Amino acid sequence: MSTKLQGVRGMNDLLPDEAERWEAFEEIVRDWLKSYGYRPIRSPIVEPTALFHRGVGEHTDIVEKEMYSFEDRLNGEQLTLRPEGTASCVRSVIEHNLLFQNSQRLYYSGPMFRHERPQKGRYRQFHQVGVEALGFAGPDIDAEHIVMCRRLWDDLGLEDVELQLNSLGDAAERATHRAELIAYLERHQDQLDEDGKRRLHANPLRVLDTKNPALQDIVDAAPKLLDYLGAESLKHFEAVQAMLREAAVPYRINPRLVRGLDYYNRTVFEWTTTRLGAQATFCAGGRYDSLIEQLGGRASPACGFAMGMERVMLLWQDGLEAGSLVSPDLYVVHQGERAQPFAFRAAELLRSAGFAVVFHCGGGGFKSQMKKADASGAAFAVIVGDDEAAAGMLALKPLREAGEQVSLAPEAAAEWLAERLYGDDEA
Ligand code: HAM
């Protein structure tokens, strides 16, 4: 007996009810991105492993332990299923010289892969909508990203969301802070946990990001990066905040917000909620002014963010009711030798007229077909028996409200239905 095949742990199927909700969400998101002038970019799901080592950082959780990496059996290339979209987007922009003349406002969406321990809101294949603005130096674009997020949450009616904000300064400021932080952590070395000890010299900022309650006192008293910012970084951070105040977007400065990827500098932010338990952050991003150069492009400032779609979908309670979305307009039932081809042609004609039409397949009597028509959610049944076929007529029966059945020729039926369904007498 063969073993039962199942999907991969942490990678989910989206069944039709849920997939329809996702499509409705994606439509809202696309309109929102267009309203801010962002354009789509699509890049492959598989990238050279080196991209993420150089882009995301050797000492991040993602690169150290979460990537799906493998060797191409045919040519020995080292490949990785993308764990995030920024590095891919930047690679593509460099490769195709998109920053040659213009700055770029871009977005992407799709699956990302991280080998994490699955739980509610955390999966091994998950989906992001990512937004990247490349070639912009000023604080205005940082503020634009935050304000556009706020608009989307408002449009979706998300509740209990908080914006956390921090600045990571520039490389020199981080280096000074890093030296002080290492000295401080070394003084407390014997109290650190295993992760903390390991990261102490490799990536001390990440020690501050620990979830271990036993380390909270040490972390709270550690030197704060915010206190090491120079005049330029402070000015940038202050300007972002001024624009947020101007736009009436509330925020909380969290000096311990460091992000899990190494490419950030200056502004970083996370949108969190109390409604998702441990997976509180549903959208995050910030500035990454060195990444383009680091990946081989001409130095160019940039910033961006990505939302976790599964997490936003969990928050979007008011999303369309399951099953309420994609009901057809019409369900065509038919019985009889002559009826079938006539009904089949009529269904095509009605689709050409703009209706969503389900054609009954699989035979059966009128009664059972009418049950299916009703269950489909269609507004009208289009009924064809041999008598109708011989007369060239369609019988139209309202399924959602009371009303007489009428018989009309196909063209006239299309007009009559357009009027009933869209209030459109021009059809
Ligand atoms: P990130 O913080 O690693 O940033 O991921 C962004 C969002 O993706 C998270 O806030 C979370 O909602 C979602 N996410 C991450 N991992 C998982 C998971 N295992 N399961 C479900 N959702 C998850 C980035 O990826 C950056 N590329 C964001 C960015 C764009 N920064 C600048 N531009």
TrEMBL record:
**PROSITE patterns per the UniProt record, alphabetical:** AA_TRNA_LIGASE_II
Instruction: Give the Enzyme Commission number.
Output: 6.1.1.21
Q: Which CDD domains match?
A: HisRS-like_core, HisRS_anticodon
Question: Pfam families, per this entry?
Answer: HGTP_anticodon, tRNA-synt_His
Per its record, what are the GO molecular function terms? ATP binding; histidine-tRNA ligase activity
A single GO CC term, please?
cytoplasm
Give yes or no: UniProt keyword Signal.
no
Primary localization class, coarse: cytoplasm
Residues that hold L-histidine according to the record: E84, G85, T86, R114, Q128, E132, R259, Y263, Y264
Where is this protein found? Answer: Cytoplasm
Task: Kindly state which reaction or reactions the protein catalyses.
Answer: tRNA(His) + L-histidine + ATP = L-histidyl-tRNA(His) + AMP + diphosphate + H(+)
* PANTHER family documented for this protein: HISTIDINE--TRNA LIGASE, MITOCHONDRIAL-RELATED (PTHR43707:SF1), HISTIDYL-TRNA SYNTHETASE (PTHR43707)
> What protein am I looking at?
Histidine--tRNA ligase
| Organism this protein belongs to | Candidatus Dactylopiibacterium carminicum
